[in-house]
């Protein structure tokens, strides 16, 4: 059994802030935990626009606080985001998240991230595996 709190993760190697400062991800479960997925709490700053593309991962996102919009850059379709919204990037869609207010999201990645990944210039995490 694994029990962790976001308080104990704060300001450790599991607490990642984007280089541009627009989001922060607390990585609660990682690949090294060997459970087949990773689980993160991500906070995106109000008034920001964030482009992502998970070419190597499937991501499920559940928004628990805040409002914004999600743009599927593959189709041009936009979706409103609010508490209780969920989106699943099962087709590795390029997408943009517009944060009208601060967004707090709970995210699951498969395959799991190991913790040190950062987005490249295209918003992609590299595929890194645990030995």
Molecular structure report:
By secondary structure, this protein is mainly beta. It has one domain: Sandwich (Jelly Rolls). Helix content is 3%, strand content 44%. It is built from 1 helix and 10 strands, in the order H-E-E-E-E-E-E-E-E-E-E. The protein has a 6-stranded antiparallel sheet with strand order 1-2-3-10-5-8, with no helix packed on it. A hairpin with an 8-residue loop joins strand 2 and strand 3. The model has no long low-confidence stretch (mean pLDDT 92). Pfam families: Ectoine_synth (PF06339). InterPro entries: Ectoine_synth (IPR010462), RmlC-like_jellyroll (IPR014710), RmlC_Cupin_sf (IPR011051).
Rg over CA atoms:
14 Å
Q: What would the average pLDDT be, to the nearest integer?
A: 92
Globally, the shape reads: globular
What is the straight-line distance between the termini?
Answer: 21 Å
Query: What would CATH call the class?
Result: Mainly Beta
Residue fraction in strands: 35-45%
Major β-sheet, in short?
A: 6 strands, antiparallel
What is the CATH superfamily? Jelly Rolls
Record the strand order, biggest sheet. Answer: 1-2-3-10-5-8
Number of strands: 10
CATH topology: Jelly Rolls
Function: Catalyzes the circularization of gamma-N-acetyl-alpha,gamma-diaminobutyric acid (ADABA) to ectoine (1,4,5,6-tetrahydro-2-methyl-4-pyrimidine carboxylic acid), which is an excellent osmoprotectant.
Family: Belongs to the ectoine synthase family.
Keywords: Lyase
GO biological process, one term: ectoine biosynthetic process
């Amino acid at each position: 059994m694994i029990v962790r709190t976001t308080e104990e993760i704060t300001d450790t190697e599991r607490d990642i802030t984007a280089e541009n400062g627009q989001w922060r991800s607390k990585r609660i479960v990682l690949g090294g935990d060997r459970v087949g997925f990773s689980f993160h709490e991500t906070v995106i700053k109000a008034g920001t626009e964030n482009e992502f593309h998970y070419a190597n991962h499937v991501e499920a996102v559940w928004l628990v606080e805040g409002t914004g919009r999600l743009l599927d850059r593959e189709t041009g379709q936009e979706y409103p985001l609010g508490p209780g919204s969920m989106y699943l990037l099962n087709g590795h869609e390029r997408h943009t998240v517009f944060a009208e207010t601060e967004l707090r999201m709970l995210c699951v990645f498969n395959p799991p991230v190991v913790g040190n990944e950062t987005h490249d210039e295209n918003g992609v995490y590299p595929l890194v595996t645990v030995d």
